[in-house]
């Protein structure tokens, strides 16, 4: 388990090294007023302690991503360890921290408004629509997956009835002040998510299982031609490495942080924690099923259902405690990301139309159309919804990275920390468009990769124009 141990140590060390470097780069100032100091409203802008904000942020961004994505990504082999570790440190945690700080500096505005400030009015308009669609898509995905699992656990209640029960909870969590439901329930589930990961880590360290080592970049997928490492691995493992969805959740906690000095632990720390959780799940998935090939074969026999793998692994390795933690992981985690997705959508709409969110009737008026659309999406085949969600998620991450690059470049600071990840993720998401059968499905990889490279260069030129432009849309 040398590879696993090195990756784990690198992730932990990065929080105290690279995380501190990014603090200096972002000019963190504990004396600078935070959004909640200026805008406290008793609904969304509410002062919360650091430990509570951290656990809420972790659960907001996690969902089933660092579990399901890591298990599916482990089918590629130990190369997944490399992406989770390097992606988590230099892509995802940097993305979450820098975008979180940018949001803090602009009064906790929703993500599309921040992107518009640095990338222009046209981009802002596109991202507004794109972000709302992604939020509703996330909410629908995280209604369907727990509803299906709960229906299998409690067959007396149909899947459709579970959908309505979860939807009712979403309405409450989205409408009520952040400290009423989210502030009280999330920390409990956050601790359970961490406890599950710690339990599995102890199992791995006990020596009962053998973790594959990274000795080759070989693709261990059963059909490597259909699922190439580039770009599929980088789309499959999102939340454990980098996810645009995270930046849409940051405004929720940016409105509750009482000191800029807490940004590293809340934003960078929660992403590093998520990467560690993903690393553990990728390792136990490969070890439990005797390697990535065995994992792929077992998943294929069960329709690619990662929830099945979670259930089997947890029951076998952690016993009855594992069963409870597995239930929390595969049911509570997606539900708690789904409700904040709808809450994030409410904040985006409110920021667009400048709707005061203190009156509950105005919150209700914003939420109902979102929930109607979300319920409509639950009627579509889950596999179709998930495939487009995964791509949309990473596409938004690329846009956020370009915004961070422009922000740093305009301040004449080290913009390479954002530029390299921005170029890489833009290539990944555009490559996926050309390669994947759900889009263009170009069989000739040389042509597909060349088109992706040209598109990436185009995005880079557009971003560079924004760096050199003195025009912003600060209001």
Could you outline the blueprint of secondary structure elements for this entry?
Elements: H1 2-16, H2 18-25, H3 35-39, H4 50-62, H5 65-73, H6 79-105, H7 111-119, H8 121-153, H9 159-175, H10 182-205, H11 229-236, H12 244-254, H13 263-288, H14 292-301, H15 306-353, H16 360-377, H17 382-410, H18 416-435, H19 445-468
Task: Give structural notes.
By secondary structure, the chain is mainly alpha-helical. It is 75% helix and 0% strand. The chain has 19 helices and no strands. α7 packs antiparallel against α8 and α8 packs across α9. The radius of gyration is 21 Å and the shape is globular.
Give a quick rundown of the structure.
With 475 residues, the protein is mostly helical. It has helices at residues 2-16, 18-25, 35-39, 50-62, 65-73, 79-105, 111-119, 121-153, 159-175, 182-205, 229-236, 244-254, 263-288, 292-301, 306-353, 360-377, 382-410, 416-435, 445-468. The longest helix is centred in the last third of the chain and has 48 residues, at 306-353.
């Amino acid at each position: 388990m040398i590879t696993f141990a090195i990756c784990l140590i690198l992730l932990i060390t990065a929080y105290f090294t690279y995380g501190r470097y990014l603090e200096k780069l972002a000019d963190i100032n504990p004396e600078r007023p935070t959004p909640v100091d200026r805008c406290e409203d008793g609904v969304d802008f509410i002062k919360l302690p650091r430990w509570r904000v951290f656990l809420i942020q972790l659960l907001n961004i996690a969902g089933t991503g660092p579990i399901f994505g890591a298990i599916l990504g482990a089918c590629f082999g130990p190369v997944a360890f490399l992406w989770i570790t390097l992606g988590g440190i230099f892509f995802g945690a940097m993305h979450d921290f820098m975008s979180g700080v940018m949001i803090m500096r602009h009064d906790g505005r929703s993500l599309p408004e921040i992107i518009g400030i640095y990338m222009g009015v046209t981009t802002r308009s596109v991202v507004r629509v794109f972000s709302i669609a992604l939020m509703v898509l996330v909410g629908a995905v995280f209604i369907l997956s727990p509803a299906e699992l709960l229906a299998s656990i409690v067959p007396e209640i149909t899947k459709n009835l579970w959908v309505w029960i979860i939807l009712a909870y979403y309405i409450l969590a989205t409408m009520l002040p952040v400290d009423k439901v989210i502030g009280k329930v999330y920390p409990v589930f956050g601790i359970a998510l961490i406890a599950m990961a710690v339990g599995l880590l102890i199992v791995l360290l006990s020596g009962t299982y053998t973790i594959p080592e990274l000795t080759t970049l070989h693709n261990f997928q059963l059909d490597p031609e259909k699922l190439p490492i580039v770009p599929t691995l980088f789309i499959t493992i999102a939340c454990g490495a980098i996810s645009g969805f995270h930046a849409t959740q940051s405004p929720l906690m940016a409105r509750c942080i009482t000191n800029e000095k807490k940004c590293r632990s809340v934003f960078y720390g929660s992403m590093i924690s998520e990467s560690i959780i993903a690393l553990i799940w990728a390792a136990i998935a490969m070890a439990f099923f005797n390697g990535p090939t065995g994992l792929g074969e077992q998943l294929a026999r069960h329709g690619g259902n990662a929830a099945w793998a979670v259930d089997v692994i947890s029951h076998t390795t952690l016993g009855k405690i594992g069963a409870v933690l597995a239930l929390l992981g595969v049911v509570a985690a997606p539900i708690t990301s789904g409700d904040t997705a709808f809450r994030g959508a409410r904040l985006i709409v409110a920021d667009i139309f400048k709707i005061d969110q203190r009156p509950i009737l105005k919150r209700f008026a914003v939420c109902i159309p979102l929930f109607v659309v979300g319920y409509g999406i639950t009627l579509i085949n889950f596999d179709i919804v998930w495939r487009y969600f995964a791509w949309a998620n990473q596409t938004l991450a690329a846009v956020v990275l370009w915004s961070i690059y422009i922000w740093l470049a305009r301040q004449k600071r080290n913009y390479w920390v954002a530029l390299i990840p921005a170029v890489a993720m833009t290539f990944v998401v555009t490559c996926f468009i050309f390669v994947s059968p759900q889009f263009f499905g170009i069989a000739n990889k040389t042509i597909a990769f060349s088109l992706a490279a040209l598109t990436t260069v185009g995005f880079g030129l557009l971003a560079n124009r924004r760096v050199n432009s003195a025009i912003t849309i600060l209001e």
